């Protein structure tokens, strides 16, 4: 299979407004592309060497606690996010029309080849997969607002769409976490993920050379939507080269997400009072039997 590589595309969403405010923030998107030249790492800051060669965005952002809340820097700290499925018929706000050369309007998510419930279950399980190993929490699916892409009043921190992307090399792209408070008028696009409907996606770890495992692509792109860049570690979910199915997180992926949200909080199960009483009585019974045996 021709190697598929992820590259970063940097766009200053509101350049005039940002210059006026003397801000230097830029919103980034990660695009999965068909590329034959050497691996591109443009726009990312590598941290260390293997086995911790994950990266974050040049303007590091993360989801904070509470819906539609993000921040710049301040890592690691707990965070969470909601997600939603965009419906058909949506378009981009004018300022980003040419950013990724989408064709027409969004399509129904089932155009990607999965039933709606299967797709929703997949996204939910993958966000939980990232959350199980870190301080990130999946707040679950919410009803999408129906706002145009990058429009105001959008609901769902991470909005997911099926779209016809004109670039023949693009499978999908995702934006780093962000809000209008951070990136200006189109900041609501932060965390959004778009799949190219022209691709042959399958939910199959044994996808052949003419199809693409949508689980693998989505797991990678959701890593970007949570704030991760690329990894140089072979076999990691965030590696920049698509080379078949990758349905689990590597040690480097976990180190990366922990650098943003911290490790998974320690959970201590406290027994119900009745269970604890039974347990104590059991210990007493064992002790008495031992006493009888001794005498």
Quickly list its features.
single chain; 295 residues; alpha/beta; two-stranded antiparallel sheet; globular; disordered C terminus
Q: How are the elements arranged and paired?
A:
Layout: E1 4-11, H1 15-20, E2 27-34, E3 44-46, E4 55-57, E5 61-63, E6 70-72, E7 79-85, E8 102-107, H2 116-132, E9 136-141, E10 158-165, E11 170-175, H3 180-183, E12 193-196, E13 201-202, E14 212-213, H4 214-225, E15 241-242, H5 251-261, H6 273-294
Parallel strand pairs: 7-9, 7-10, 10-12, 13-14
Antiparallel strand pairs: 1-2, 1-15, 2-11, 3-4, 5-6, 8-10, 11-12
Helix pairs in contact: 2-4
Q: Care to describe what's here?
A:
The protein is of the alpha/beta class and 295 residues long. The protein has one domain: Collagenase (Catalytic Domain). 24% of the residues lie in helices and 24% in strands. The protein contains 6 helices and 15 strands. It has helices spanning 15-20, 116-132, 180-183, 214-225, 251-261, 273-294, and strands at 4-11, 27-34, 44-46, 55-57, 61-63, 70-72, 79-85, 102-107, 136-141, 158-165, 170-175, 193-196, 201-202, 212-213, 241-242. Strands 1, 2, 7, 8, 9, 10, 11, 12 and 15 form a 9-stranded mixed beta sheet that branches. Strands 3-4 form a two-stranded antiparallel sheet. A hairpin with an 8-residue loop joins strand 3 (44-46) and strand 4 (55-57). It is globular, with a radius of gyration of 22 Å. The N and C termini lie far apart (77 Å).
């Amino acid at each position: 299979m021709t190697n598929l590589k992820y590259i970063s595309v940097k766009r200053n969403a509101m350049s005039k407004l940002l210059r006026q405010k003397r801000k230097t923030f830029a919103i980034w998107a990660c695009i999965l592309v068909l590329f034959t030249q050497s691996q591109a790492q443009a726009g990312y800051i590598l941290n260390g060497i293997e086995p911790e060669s994950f990266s974050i965005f040049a303007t590091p952002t993360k989801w904070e606690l509470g819906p539609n809340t993000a921040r710049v820097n301040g890592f690691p700290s707990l965070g969470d996010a909601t997600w939603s499925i965009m419906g058909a018929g949506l378009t981009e706000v004018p300022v980003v029309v040419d950013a990724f050369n989408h064709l027409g309007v969004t399509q129904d998510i089932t155009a990607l080849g999965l039933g709606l419930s299967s797709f929703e279950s997949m996204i939910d399980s993958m966000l939980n997969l990232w959350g199980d190993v870190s301080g990130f929490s999946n707040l679950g699916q919410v009803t999408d607002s129906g706002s145009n892409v990058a429009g105001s009043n959008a609901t769902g921190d991470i909005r997911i769409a099926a779209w016809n992307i004109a670039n023949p090399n693009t499978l999908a792209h995702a934006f780093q976490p962000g809000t209008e408070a951070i990136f200006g008028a189109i900041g609501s696009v932060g965390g959004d993920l778009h799949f190219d409907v022209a691709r042959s996606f399958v939910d199959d770890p044994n996808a052949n050379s003419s199809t693409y495992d949508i689980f693998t692509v989505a797991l990678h792109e959701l890593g970007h939507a949570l704030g991760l860049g690329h990894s140089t570690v072979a076999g990691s979910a965030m590696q920049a080269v698509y080379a078949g199915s990758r349905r689990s997180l590597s040690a480097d992926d976990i180190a990366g997400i922990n650098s943003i949200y911290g490790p998974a909080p320690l959970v201590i199960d406290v027994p119900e009072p009745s269970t604890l009483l039974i347990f104590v009585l059991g210990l007493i019974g064992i002790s008495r039997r031992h006493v009888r045996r001794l005498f």
